[in-house]
Amino acid sequence: MFTKPVSSPCDDFFYQYVSFMNQILCSLCAVLLFATTALADPPKKQAPKAMLQHIVLFKFKPETTPEKVTEIIAAFEALPSKIKEIKSFQWGTNNSPEKLDKGLTHAFILTFDSAKDRDTYLPHPAHKQFGSVVGPWLADVTVVDFVNQAK
Predict the structure, then answer these.
(1) Are strands 138-147 and 106-112 parallel, antiparallel or unpaired?
(2) 61 lies in the same domain as 115
(3) Do residue 115 and residue 64 come from a single domain?
(4) Which residue, 14, 1, 113, 130, is CA-closest to 75?
(5) Cβ proximity of 104 and 61 under 8 Å
(6) Do 78 and 139 share a structural domain?
(7) Helix, strand, coil shares, percent, the chain, to 5
(8) What span is annotated as the signal peptide, if there is one (predicted)?
(9) What is the value of pTM for the model shown?
(10) Which domain holds residue 74?
(11) Which of 31, 89, 104, 133 has a 20 to 30 Å separation from 62 between CA atoms?
């Protein structure tokens, strides 16, 4: 028959000592892990890619109806599906309180990976077709291109 060995006070002390040392060791490991993580260099952020922004501003002729403006915007919005070089397309109407818009009411931003892609877009047949749709209705147009200086 199996009997449980009798433990001595010395065994109890040794067990408590080992248990205490394990707790200390685990705590030190946790502190060391936390310290190395906290003091480590943060991961390097990858610099955003410099992309070309093509900004187009329209001033419509007074006789341009809201329905015609909607039709023109829809035609402009369709260009990214026809011209693969356009990476993004945004538009909106002027709401600046500064009163420096010179009558320009609609802004469009097209994003390209490079000037080369923009240069492919400009003579593209879909872009030329859009120009023939919008041209008769414009009193003025302004275009500004820049490569973003993202950091």
Answers:
(1) unpaired
(2) yes
(3) yes
(4) 130
(5) no
(6) yes
(7) 45, 20, 35
(8) 1-40
(9) 0.69
(10) 52-147
(11) 89
